[in-house]
Amino acid sequence: MNLKLAGLWAIVGGSSQGLGYACAAALVDEGVNVVINGRRLDVLKNAADELARRAGDHVRVIAVAGDLAKSDTRERIINACSAPDILVTNSGGPAPGPFQQADRDKWMAGMEANFLPHVDLINRVVDGMCERRYGRIINITSAMVTTPRPTMAASSAARAALTAAVKGLSLDVAKYNVTINNLLPERFDTERQRFMAEVASTRDGISFEEARARQVESIAARRLGDPAELGATCAFLASPLAGFISGQNLHLDGGSYPALV
Fold it and tell me: Most buried of the four, 8, 34, 53, 171, by CB within 10 Å?
């Protein structure tokens, strides 16, 4: 399928590895010029080199190093691409922990990592998208938005806040052919899931292998997700073909979401 994306520009946050990289790769494969971002310079450089190899001569890949939570990083990203057609927001979630152990600093850390940077980037680009009559904003949030877990209080709060903030905005900008949607991943085979398995291993006194097996068993499909599957979904939502989809939360969880709506 030709997604009709060739020649467009995208900003993809937190994209040196994991789900963010998968989104950047899927967009590059469709001919989209991308600005990628990551905190670790060596990992970011490797990602940029690999994307450039995939891209060939007709697609540009620009790497901006830095923490998205810092305003100067976001400023440099916007300077690299002041008029993106596509914005994919993404950043790693807070460390797991129960509600009772989340003091003010932990609540604020979650908001400063998973809410405030994303609404700032959205605010910087959405008016231009409306003026140009094309824009796709895709937020990688989490299944914790709709199915919070006891050990993920800070993550659930920050990502649900982002979901609520952009829902109202999506109603306002749809008439300008600007869509806003959220991808809610659960149990993709990334470094984040390996980290979560290590946490569970220490917390529950089990082996790492058992913790990984529990992750697989928690998914109805009885496997972890392939990041490329999320990347492909992101590319479709970024395309003109998805122009009638907006304000939605799309679970990517191997069929595990238990509710009707």
Answer: 34
- The 10 Å Cβ neighbour count of residue 173 is 20
- 199 and 96 Cβ atoms separated by less than 8 Å: yes
- How many CB atoms within 10 Å of residue 10? 27
Residue 120 and residue 116: Cα distance in Å, rounded?
6
Q: pLDDT of 98-132, one tens digit each?
A: 899 999 999 999 999 999 999 999 999 999 999 99
Dist. CA 55–CA 64, nearest whole Å? 18
Per-residue pLDDT tens over the stretch 135-155: 999 999 999 999 999 989 999
Nearest to 197 by CA among 216, 223, 219: 216
Element (H, E) at 165: helix 153-173
Residue 81: which residues within 8 A CB-CB, separation 6 or more?
A: 9, 10, 11, 35, 62
> What whole-number distance in Å separates Cα of residue 201 and Cα of residue 261?
33
- The token pair at 97 is 């922990």
Superfamily of domain 9-188+226-252: NAD(P)-binding Rossmann-like Domain (3.40.50.720)
Other C-beta atoms lying within 10 Å of the C-beta of residue 106: 16
Among 66, 45, 18, CA closest to 224: 18
Q: Are 157 and 110 in contact (CB under 8 A)?
A: yes
Read off the pTM: 0.95
> Which residue(s) pair with 182 in the sheet?
139, 249
Instruction: Specify the DSSP class assigned to residue 226.
Output: P
Cα separation of 140 and 23, whole Å?
10
